[in-house]
Amino acid sequence: MSDESQELGITESKSHKPGEWYAEVVQKAGLADYAPMGGFIVTKPRGYALWESLQDALDGQFKETGVDNVYFPMFIPESYLEREKDIVEGFDPEVAWVTQGGHEELEERLAVRPTSESIIAPFMADWTRSHRDLPLRLNQWCSVVRWEATETKPFFRTKEFMWQEGHTAHASDEGAWEEVWTRLGQYEHVFEEHLAIPVLRGKKPDHDKFPGADTTTTVEALMPDGKSVQGATSHHLGQSFAEAFDITFADEDEEEQTAYTTSWGLSWRALGALIMTHSDDQGLVLPPTIAPTQVVIVPIWQADTQEKVLDYSEEIADELEAAGFRVELDDRDERNPGFKFNEHELNGIPLRLEIGPNEVDDEEVTLVHRPDNEDSVADREGIVDTVDEHLETIFDKLYEAAEENLEENVREAHSPENILGTIGKHGGYVKTPWCGDQACEEAIKEKIAAEIVMQPLEEQGGSTAGEVVEPDHDECGVCGEPADELAYFAKSY
Length: 493
Ligand SMILES: [Zn+2]
Known about the structure:
- The chain is of the alpha+beta class.
- It has 15 helices and 23 strands.
- The chain has a seven-stranded mixed β-sheet with strand order 3-7-8-14-11-10-9, with helices on both faces. Strands 16-15-17-18-19 form a five-stranded mixed β-sheet, sandwiched between helices. A four-stranded mixed β-sheet has the order 20-21-23-22.
- Helix 3 (45-64) packs across helix 7 (173-194).
- The chain binds zinc ion (ZN).
- Zinc ion (ZN) binds next to loops.
- This is Proline--tRNA ligase.
- It catalyses: tRNA(Pro) + L-proline + ATP = L-prolyl-tRNA(Pro) + AMP + diphosphate.
């Protein structure tokens, strides 16, 4: 390996130093860079392309299910933020404030939105007159700021992050529940079908729900280092925001009623989970569904074979492009094939086609899978179908590996020693009966920094909250008191 390609490649190991490895993949694969202010990142073209792809996938589903996009100001007057008390208490330590505009001191401080319920809800109140105005479903793609003093981790922990936030109002509690489950289902779908990451669905324990919410539901993904990532959340807000902001409507009998609201969000943390789940010590690994370039063609030639190799490669590139694949033909003269292989591996292009004079003469192509380097030779004829099949196989390989990691890392424990020991040794999820007392979570959290990340629900969908799954044993795994809820403990990002 030349010095140049060493500098290009990843030097840290995913299994030994996951934190350093992750930071190196993000930077060297050209996804993001650190901004001059701590806690902020610059998203580079390849990183932003991933966000756009995720955005497209989700936005399409939202629009098919009655959601309209809007945009609200990034500033929220302090008096608006104060109207719903839980929001103030929940976000107060993390809010960034604007106190001055130009040379003028502002009469009222403006919060940089940590989330937008407090600015959107009063307008929802204005726009909701009659039951015929409901359901009202709004979504915005934007960034929010939460001033957390933690170490910057691109896409996982940044003071400003990109997300979407959906806000809806409904005439009935049942309507709001249907909304909550629809959105959670769409998040699950985008994680599984677009990011090739299986997730667990459930609710957050009450002490960890969104400020002001009745219930917070979540999809959780298990990373290879044994920590859980909260992938997206969907909140049933009950009537607390509707009451605080007067979201009322005249029902069919002209009686005034208070609406029920929901909010739901997915942030670019999903990209953090994507990078962490599939990538390896050679760099980024992407499922073909989200990869900006799905197929790279690397022609391999000598002076006397250059013309025929390039002609043949271009024809294949054109044919694949016409069929709708995202293709790059790497015909750079100044780089040798070995360098190109390393670079495309680092950048996570799922499928590589190698074309040399032998492939041209035999009317074939050599195909190499990024995740495991598996290679095979196929006929030139039928290349579109062949590439399609290979991309599907690559997706399946990634999904199956992530699914295996998840299935092997859900364990049971029935005593504090056992919970601590199991998470300490294996990471992953430990499921245990729980009495519902936050103190029992604290007892575990103090010792090992693991918390209850999720409680599975019997029925996930429909028009009710659903019941928390009952455990097989009826004693709390921490305190031994009677327990009728099942809880999943894990360390988390
Ligand atoms: Zn307990």
